[in-house]
Amino acid sequence: MVILDYGSGNLRSAERAVARAGADVEVTADPHAAIEADGLVVPGVGAYSACMAGLVEVKGHRIIGKRLAGGRPVLGICVGMQILFSRGVEHGEETEGTGEWPGVVDRLNADVLPHMGWNTVRAPADSQLFAGLDPDERFYFVHSYAARKWELDGLAGQEPKVTWANHGEDFVAAVENGPLWATQFHPEKSGDAGARLLRNWLATL
């Protein structure tokens, strides 16, 4: 299991959480290790543009693309989820994302930002990521930007499973799309619920 090291400040907490969930974890930017690992976690905190710049610097966008082309699992967390969309808009600056999913990440329409703290989510009944978790379970969010629409339908029988949350308006809280899964919240900061979610992902590897 590899945590992709591309300059994000959230590496060590993600590393500890995935290790506690039962995986052998390596934090590295080495392309070979990242491509060949059973699972790849792409964490992220801070600005969309800074995360994309760091990702491109270590060729992380190519690593993600190669893994997905081979059906190898990737889990994006927070901004590590946001950069999977086509583009992000922050403070009037538009940044191209990895384009794994169509759509834009932009500012939430909410009276209070950032959205910081615990919130419930609405997961599909057949979600593997949230299997065994109570619908009233809460997860820890810290963000002002999100994907507010989901624009990828998928093929019949292979439709992405999209989980929603609300802060001022609905936004995408998690996605399960073939080998590419992601969460807007921080499972590594979400206590027992986050640990269960990470174990659910690891069980699919």
From TrEMBL:
Pathway: Amino-acid biosynthesis; L-histidine biosynthesis; L-histidine from 5-phospho-alpha-D-ribose 1-diphosphate: step 5/9. GO terms for cellular component: cytoplasm. It is found in: Cytoplasm. It catalyses: 5-[(5-phospho-1-deoxy-D-ribulos-1-ylimino)methylamino]-1-(5-phospho-beta-D-ribosyl)imidazole-4-carboxamide + L-glutamine = D-erythro-1-(imidazol-4-yl)glycerol 3-phosphate + 5-amino-1-(5-phospho-beta-D-ribosyl)imidazole-4-carboxamide + L-glutamate + H(+); L-glutamine + H2O = L-glutamate + NH4(+). InterPro entries: Class_I_gatase-like, GATASE, Imidazole-glycPsynth_HisH. Keywords: Amino-acid biosynthesis, Cytoplasm, Glutamine amidotransferase, Histidine biosynthesis, Hydrolase, Lyase. This is Imidazole glycerol phosphate synthase subunit HisH. The gene is hisH.
